[in-house]
Amino acid sequence: MSICMDIVESLETTAKENNYQGIDKVWLEVGPFSGVEVRALEFSFEVATRGSIAHESELEVVQTPGQAWCFGCDKTVVIKQRYDVCPLCRSSQLTVTGGEELKIKQISIKE
Q1: pTM given for the model
Q2: What does the alpha-carbon distance between residue 38 and residue 100 come to, in Å, rounded to a whole number?
């Protein structure tokens, strides 16, 4: 819920700065390593937006893939979990480079 409250606060600030009358839709990018449970986020968003500039707005969650750079084959690869081995060379020496994001990607404003 606190994550959604922060999102609503950010939406309110953006709306105020740009004189938006309301927000119709919000797109959030969420990575598998962000620590966010998408279903809980969706439920909390509906509750957190009540009475806000984003009241009754639609939420679309864009799930991004987990990515890592492999020391073994010098490639960026998609991984499903932290500590996966490289799907190309089976090395276990990976550094996570993507999938930790939780950010507002886009909003649609009411006209």
Answers
A1: 0.82
A2: 13
